[in-house]
Design brief:
Blueprint: E1 3-8, E2 17-21, H1 23-28, E3 34-39, E4 43-53, E5 63-64, E6 67-68, H2 77-89, H3 94-101, E7 111-116, H4 129-141, E8 144-145, H5 146-153, H6 159-167, E9 171-176, E10 184-191, H7 198-207, H8 212-228, E11 232-233, H9 234-239, H10 244-252, E12 256-263, H11 280-295, E13 298-303, H12 309-322, E14 326-330, H13 337-348, E15 352-355, H14 361-373, E16 380-383, E17 395-401, H15 419-430, E18 433-438, H16 443-450, E19 455-459, E20 470-475, H17 476-481, E21 485-486, E22 489-490, H18 491-502, E23 506-510, E24 519-522, E25 539-541, E26 546-548, E27 555-557, E28 570-573, H19 577-587, E29 593-596, H20 606-615, E30 621-624, E31 637-642, H21 646-649, H22 656-668, E32 679-684, H23 690-696, H24 700-713, E33 721-729, H25 732-749, E34 754-758, E35 764-765, E36 768-777, H26 783-798, E37 807-812
Parallel strand pairs: 2-5, 13-18, 13-19, 14-16, 14-17, 15-16, 17-18, 20-32, 23-30, 23-31, 29-30, 31-32
Antiparallel strand pairs: 1-2, 1-4, 3-4, 3-6, 7-8, 7-9, 10-11, 10-12, 21-22, 24-28, 25-26, 26-27, 33-36, 33-37, 34-36, 35-36
Helix pairs in contact: 2-3, 2-15, 11-12, 22-23, 25-26
This protein binds a DNA duplex (12 and 12 nucleotides) through strand 1, strand 2, strand 3 and helix 3.
Binding site for Zn(2+) 2: 531, 534, 549, 552
Keywords: ATP-binding, DNA replication, DNA-binding, Helicase, Hydrolase, Isomerase, Metal-binding, Nucleotide-binding, Primosome, Zinc
Domain Helicase C-terminal: 535-711
DNA sequence: AGCACGCCGACT
DNA sequence: GTCGGCGTGCTC
């Protein structure tokens, strides 16, 4: 009787793959274990066992698995079910979900290793120069990777050389798959057993009387052991000034012996319970959440900025972990985890674990395994969207903070999932509750509240008498007419900044565009430098004196004269954070201003450094992009300035107004503190615009009503569901035709509206032309059947020879 | 997706 | 004459 498994491979292929296993393996293997399997000509992948069966494939011979990587499953049945849902809903393969769900430390890929054959002699084998170089390198290193061979020969195509060496019997190839995860081990020492008795010990000290250093080391060891009553780590001795050589010779003399204990890489120290109690309003909100959970699985907490939502989350989480449940806390931005970990571990001690993509491989594997075991140390998980894929087995609650943030939706590699929506599905599988929190809920969530699908709780009062900020509108048209502008600052704005600083408070300025200016223009011929690979103008960076493309990274030195007409009269157009920072240096030369955007927050701690120095008041004025709007708390900010509200309002996106509202309210929320009313200054050409008015009046309901009305009229979410199909190819005509073909077929096959084919605002990126189509699914129309039909149409597109090279991406619920 | 295979233009 | 460009087909 043959035995088989179905394995999921981390690839964008629609099917699972069948592999043959032995009877013993069949008995041992379970769903959710990893297996190393050969795939294609000479590659080994980490497959995941999806099922076991005994039906031989009919059209091909199943390969045998290479070996088994786990002793017990590392992926739970619920996860597999959830992955399946993600793959179906977001229209990608389960392999893609698997690939992004598993930490890369658990997802190994093979590497081809070249080793020399022992009995080969170079003499008389007539190797050419390249072959000899490889042979020689192998005498020194005894194993090479393909990449290394390529470096040695200084060219890309090395396979012919390798093949010739194989045929000459000089080398052989192996596929190596190495476990990347290594538990961190701490080195300890202890006295060999025979010295544990008193007399031997005195003897020992006698023996060492002439080796002063070694004697000292042994004495010190005793001290440590007596005081700590714990195993003695080698590091403790070296810290005390005992050298590694001394320890080594003691080990060599068999006086000490060394041993290792695995240690957790991540440890949060925390005094358990820095007890606090909720304010009256917070308690009310807390109560309405718990009541709401009796009827609804999902509840939205609509709490204005600085109303103390986090305290409510903490109280809620406490209840769940007391009953032994796991809690997942999702944040929109990795950079926010640091602040939150401090707050939560002060309360829950080392029950808090973190998980996000900036964590090292090993750290992520560790958290994964802890969650899988249901370890005490990972009862509360804080993470960005990928933490959703951890192997929970007893999940009780998911908190999604800043629920409206668009970064919860994964944009680029598939699966293009929305963490909020996927979390709600996951919670259902676990019978867990979901709490969404935001000061400016997404229209989707608030809509679900109104229709009774979600529960609702609100917190409409700032914590501890913080008065909501005063919002002042500045009419730019008027200011320019009256010549009251200095650069991009109106006199009102400059005065307010000066006043705030004079009071010893800090200022935040918001400009949603990085760089110095979005483009430069020749004042003689009107030429605007463009990216040669993308259909965008190049952003000017004054500091680096460069022009840069935000889409492909292309950059050139900033021209001194126009490339077209050689005029030297070049002017910058528009403005970004860098320019504002420059202007500040002139306006407030003795104040310390700093800039926070993607360009200054590179690196693992770039962001935290800026935040910390702002908190420590080393920075007086912080200029930043939308990064500033994401749930940061500062307690000395006297005013917030929005330099140009208009560029947010006029984006070609049906969500532009909602976003502009959210962004402005969020940024405004950074102003003010206890007993001190903050000020928010908004510069705009449209002071009468509805969204601006809604921001000043803090009228979420008004914004919601107006936007929802528009969405209804123009057939957009939350009424209609959207699926965007994007086509890319370097041949302009080819994409254009393929998009038209696709449009026609979709229209004839689907009974729903299809928009397009549309040339997006940026119609070419990295030399690929882009077209997009939008399928709109009306309320009440089945999602699954429509998606199935779309996939079928795309398959038939793939069957058209001239179009199959066109790259296609599908984005369900684009955000 | 990756990767091998296969066919065609630009140079050591 | 090879190197490396890309189009094509396949992966249990």
């Amino acid at each position: 009787m043959p035995y088989f498994i179905e394995a999921i491979l981390p690839l964008a292929l629609p099917n699972t793959f069948t592999y043959a296993v032995t009877e013993a393996e069949y008995g041992f293997l379970q769903q959710g274990m990893r297996v190393a399997v050969p795939f294609g000509k000479n590659k080994i992948y980490t497959g995941l066992v999806a099922s076991l069966h005994q039906t031989p494939p009919r059209l091909y011979e199943a390969k045998e698995i290479h070996h088994i990587l786990d002793e017990k499953p590392i992926v739970t049945p619920i996860q597999l079910q959830h992955w399946k849902w993600v793959a179906d809903y977001y229209m990608c393969t389960i392999g893609e979900v698997y690939k992004s769900a598993l930490p890369s430390g658990l997802l190994l890929e093979s590497e081809t290793i070249i080793t020399p054959k022992k009995d080969f002699v170079a003499e008389g084998a007539d190797l050419n120069d390249e072959e000899y170089l490889v042979y020689e390198a192998l005498q020194v290193q005894s194993a090479l990777k393909i990449q290394e061979v390529s470096n040695i020969l200084n060219k890309k195509t090395v396979l012919p050389v390798i093949n010739r060496l194989i045929s000459k019997n000089a080398i052989s190839l192996q596929e190596e798959i190495s476990e990347k995860y290594k538990p961190k081990a701490i080195r300890y020492i202890r006295l060999q057993e025979q010295f544990l008795q008193q007399e031997q010990l005195s003897q020992l000290l006698e023996v060492l009387s002439r080796a002063k250093k070694q004697r000292e080391a042994v004495m010190h060891y005793f001290q440590l052991q007596a005081s700590d009553k714990k195993p003695v780590a080698v590091k403790k001795l070296t810290d005390a000034g005992i050298t590694a050589t001394v320890i080594k010779s003691l080990i060599d003399k068999e006086i000490f012996e060394e041993y290792y204990i695995e240690e957790d890489r991540i440890q949060f120290e925390g005094s358990n319970n820095a007890g606090f109690s909720l304010s009256e309003k917070q308690q009310l909100a807390f109560n309405s959440i718990t009541t709401s959970f009796e009827q609804h699985n999902v509840t939205l907490l609509h709490g204005i900025t600085s109303s103390g939502k986090t305290e409510i989350y903490i109280k809620l989480i406490e209840g769940y972990i007391q009953s032994g449940k796991q809690v997942l806390y999702l944040l929109p931005e990795i950079a926010l985890t640091a602040q939150l970990v401090i707050r939560l571990s002060a309360y829950f001690g080392n029950k808090v674990a973190v998980y996000h993509s900036k964590y090292s491989n090993n750290e992520r594997v560790e958290s994964w395994l802890q969650v899988l075991e249901g370890s005490e140390k990972a009862q509360v998980i804080i993470g960005a969207r990928s933490a959703l894929f951890l192997p929970f087995n007893n999940l009780g609650l998911i908190v999604i903070d800043e629920e409206h943030e668009q970064s919860f939706k994964q944009q680029d590699p598939a699966p293009r999932y929305h963490a909020r929506d996927a979390a709600i599905v996951l919670a259902n599988y676990h019978n867990a509750k979901v709490l969404l929190g935001s000061a400016t809920p997404s229209l989707e969530s608030y809509f679900n509240v109104q229709s009774g699908k979600y529960g609702y709780a609100e917190l409409k009062e700032r914590y501890g008498n913080v008065i909501p900020p005063e919002i002042i509108l500045i009419d730019l048209k008027d200011k320019y007419k009256r010549k009251q502008m200095t650069g991009h600052f109106s006199d009102t704005m400059t005065d307010a900044v000066a006043e705030t600083l004079a009071l010893g408070k800090q200022v935040i300025l918001f400009q949603n565009r990085r760089g110095f200016s979005p483009y430069i223009e020749c004042m003689t011929c009107g030429h605007v430098p463009q990216c040669p690979q993308c259909d965008v103008s190049l952003t000017y960076y004054k500091y680096k004196n460069a022009l840069r493309c935000h889409y492909c990274g292309y950059h050139i030195a900033s021209p001194t004269q126009c490339h077209k007409c050689h005029s030297t009269d070049i002017s910058t157009k528009g403005f970004g954070t860098e320019q504002i920072e420059q202007e500040l240096k002139v306006l407030f030369p003795e104040k310390n201003s700093w800039r926070m955007d993607q360009d200054t927050t590179r690196g693992r701690h770039g962001y935290e450094k800026i935040i910390d120095s702002f908190k420590n008041r080393e920075i007086d004025i912080l200029v930043g992009t939308q990064m500033l709007a994401k749930g940061l708390h500062f307690d000395n900010v006297g005013m917030v300035g929005i330099l140009n509200a208009d560029n947010m309002l006029y984006q070609p996106d049906f969500r532009a107004f909602e976003r502009a509202y959210q962004m402005m309210v969020q940024v405004a929320g950074r102003a003010g503190r206890k007993n001190d009313r903050g000020r928010v200054l908004v510069q705009t050409y449209n002071p009468l615009h509805n969204v601006i008015r809604q921001v000043t009046e803090n009228d979420y309901e008004g914004m919601f009503a107006e936007q929802v009305y528009e969405r209804h009229n123009y057939k957009y979410p939350p009424y209609y569901r959207l699926i965007r199909i994007t086509l890319r190819h370097k041949d302009y005509e080819k994409v254009k035709n393929a998009a038209l073909w696709l449009y026609n077929v979709l229209c004839s096959q689907l009974q729903v509206p299809v928009l397009g084919p549309e040339e997006p605002a940026i119609s070419r990126i990295r030399n690929e032309y882009i077209r997009s189509l939008m399928v709109k699914i009306p309320p009440g129309t089945g999602l699954q059947p429509t998606k199935k039909a779309i996939l079928k149409v795309l398959q038939s597109l793939d069957a058209v020879a001239q179009y199959k090279a066109v790259k296609i991406t599908i984005n369900a619920d684009p955000y």
